[in-house]
Amino acid sequence: MKNNRVITALVIIAVVIGVFLILGPFYIVSEGEQAVLIRFGQIVQVERDAGLKLKTPVIDNVHRFPKKIMSWDGEPQRIPTSENQFIWVDTTARWRIEDPERFYERITTIPAAFGRLDDVIDSAVRAVIAENSIAEAVRSSNRINEQDAEELIGADATQIEGDIEEDSFRELLDMIAFDVQHDRINKGRRQLSQEMLDNSRDDVADFGIELIDVVIRQIRYSDDLTEAVFNRMISEREQIAEAYRSYGDGRREELLGQLERERETILSTAEAQAQEIRAIADGEAARIYNQAYGQDQGFFELWRSLESYRRTMPNMNKILSTDMDYFRYLYNPEG
């Protein structure tokens, strides 16, 4: 009888334990997770460490949240700057659940958290962009105003410098160094991102969220502003191209002048040499003629008269008289 009661008690205990185990008194918190234990709508425990945990079956509910850093990607917004020029701003952020108890109380779910982040960060981005100029949003430094001409013409400078002399290259750089001054910035893009973070951080902290950073991922000009920016870029490149053309025209005239001077020098030298050679040749010819004609004076006079006839008579249109000494060899057999 006693043994039966013991067996019955053991069976009852086993059944109770089995039911208890079936109802699930244990739960697991994985690495990278944190959990909030809810009993009758109240938070009774927060688990931050991974491992096997115990709860009250049926009564307690477990809500798990990631501990890892998560990313938030906002939708691009068309926002006016302080000059009332519209730009498209695309931002991203990193965040994590710092206080799971407050997170559950204020938001409860991850999708709801993304919705709250949309509201808070988008509002901060719009406010910061609207308070600053477009230059502050798109640039992080004033280095563009400190560029010299060699940086402005870019990679072409290396090729040009190898083709021309150093003095000429510096002359070209001086021509290209036109005065293009961009608006100076006081904050810059990084500082604006920090302001967006500062403006958002306190608001999301009330939700148990730690906002790690807010980054302007991309800024794109609106269609009406894009054309103006492109026109400015085209104008700058056209000024550089005009400097190239002016330099090329100057170099062409310089080289043509140098070529003409060299041509004149060569021709002058050649003419002087030719005159000298002709003088020597004429002297030698006169000597030879004198020597040859001196042997027979009559033959010399005949030859000279015949040469004269050959040159002059084809051009004579009218002869009034041949009774002159000039024609003596034509009409006088004896000359």
UniProtKB/TrEMBL annotation:
Keyword Transferase tagged: no
Transmembrane portions of the chain: 7-29
Keyword Signal recorded: no
GO cellular component: membrane
Subcellular location as annotated: Membrane
Membrane topology summary: Single-pass membrane protein
Superkingdom of origin: Bacteria
Domain Band: 24-233
Pfam families for this protein: Band_7
Keywords linked to the UniProt accession: Membrane, Transmembrane, Transmembrane helix
Family stated for the protein in its record: Belongs to the band 7/mec-2 family. HflC subfamily.
Role according to the record: HflC and HflK could regulate a protease.
NCBIfam families linked to this entry: hflC
Descriptive protein name: Protein HflC
Species this protein is from: Spirochaeta africana (strain ATCC 700263 / DSM 8902 / Z-7692)
